[in-house]
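Hi F.,

I've been meaning to write this up properly since the lab meeting, where we talked about keeping a consistent format for the predictions we share between groups. The idea is simple: the sequence comes first, exactly as it goes in, then the C-alpha cells exactly as they come out, then a line or two of notes. No screenshots and no reformatting. I'm using this chain as the first example so we have something concrete to point to.
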Amino acid sequence: MKKSKSIKINFNDETAKKLAYVAKSEGMSVQNLIVFLARQKISYFERAKEKIKDISSVDLSEFENDE
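Output, unedited:
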C-alpha cells in the first residue's frame, strides 16, 4: 500500500461552503476535489514551467504521515 500524507488546511466559511458546493456538484468529496485540483496544478506547472524530476530533497514537514 502506498504511503499517504495529510495536511490541515484552513478555509474561511465562505470559501469552505463554496468548495463543498463545487465538490457536491461534481459528485466528489471535498477531499477528492482538493486532491484533483492539486494534481491539475502540478500538471499545469510541469507543462508551463518545468518537469519536476528530482523530489528526493523536498521537505515534507508541513505534512503528517497517514500510514
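Notes:
Strands lie at 4-6, 64-66.
Residues 30-48 form the longest helix (19 residues).

If this format works for you, I'll send the rest the same way.

G.
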